[in-house]
């Protein structure tokens, strides 16, 4: 039985290499905080970005949602969801312009395939007058939870930020590899129970 209550966790993302970022990037003062909410069917992620938000390259907002690959090459919000009992995990990518995608992997970067049980999401994006950017996305996980018999999940949250001068910065809950690698399962540090 799926827990009907909503679980909520606040999080902060850290840059891959803060000292390196400080010396090379117009994004050195960027801070990313947010909230993860999980209910019986929906997962909602909210990101609040402060600092030199005007230096970020934001894609133009589209009217309609569409799937697109390689969103991580530009500014992109992400989360990873893993079944605790198996090696299977999913990668969710969301662009501020409404493009999105979801992929399933059998193990670390193995047998990547588009996850069709995730059909769409609901997202909001705005940059406010005080130069704070807000992005939120809600995903319906009902089919995935039921068909994959998910009960305990491990979650990683991350973000790719592209500056207007085309520098890329990588943010995550933590960084467990010598290079930025959001697929490293050691960085899936949030555990939530669905039963």
What does this entry show, briefly?
The protein is mostly beta strands. It contains 2 helices and 13 strands; from the N terminus they run βαβββββββββαβββ.
Report on the structure:
The chain is mainly beta and 195 residues long. The chain has a single domain, classed as Immunoglobulin-like. Helix content is 7%, strand content 44%. Strands 1, 2, 3, 4, 5, 6, 7, 8, 9, 10, 11, 12 and 13 form a 13-stranded mixed sheet that branches. The termini are close together. The mean pLDDT is 88.
Layout of strands and helices, then pairs:
Blueprint: E1 7-15, H1 18-24, E2 31-38, E3 42-50, E4 66-67, E5 76-83, E6 89-94, E7 99-105, E8 113-114, E9 121-127, E10 133-140, H2 142-147, E11 152-162, E12 168-172, E13 190-193
Parallel strand pairs: 4-7
Antiparallel strand pairs: 1-2, 1-12, 2-3, 3-10, 5-6, 5-11, 6-7, 7-8, 9-10, 11-12, 11-13
Q: What brief labels describe this structure?
A:
195 residues, mainly beta, 13-stranded mixed beta sheet, globular
């Amino acid at each position: 039985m799926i827990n009907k209550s909503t679980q909520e966790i606040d999080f902060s993302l850290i840059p891959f290499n803060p000292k390196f970022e400080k010396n090379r990037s117009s994004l050195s003062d960027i801070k990313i905080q947010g909230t993860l909410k999980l209910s019986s069917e929906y997962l909602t992620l909210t990101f609040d970005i402060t600092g030199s938000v005007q230096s970020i390259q934001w894609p133009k907002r589209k009217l309609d949602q569409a799937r697109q690959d390689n969103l991580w090459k530009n500014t992109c919000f992400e989360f990873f969801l893993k079944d605790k009992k198996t090696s299977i995990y999913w990668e969710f990518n969301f662009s501020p312009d409404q493009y999105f995608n979801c992929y399933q992997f059998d193990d670390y970067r193995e047998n990547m395939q588009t996850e069709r049980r995730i059909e769409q999401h609901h997202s909001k994006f705005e940059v406010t007058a005080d130069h704070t950017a807000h992005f939120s996305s809600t995903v319906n996980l009902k089919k995935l939870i039921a068909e994959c018999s998910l009960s305990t999940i491990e979650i990683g949250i991350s973000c790719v930020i592209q500056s207007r001068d085309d520098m890329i910065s990588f943010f995550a809950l933590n960084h467990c590899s010598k290079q930025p690698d959001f697929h490293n399962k050691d960085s899936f540090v949030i555990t939530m129970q669905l039963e």
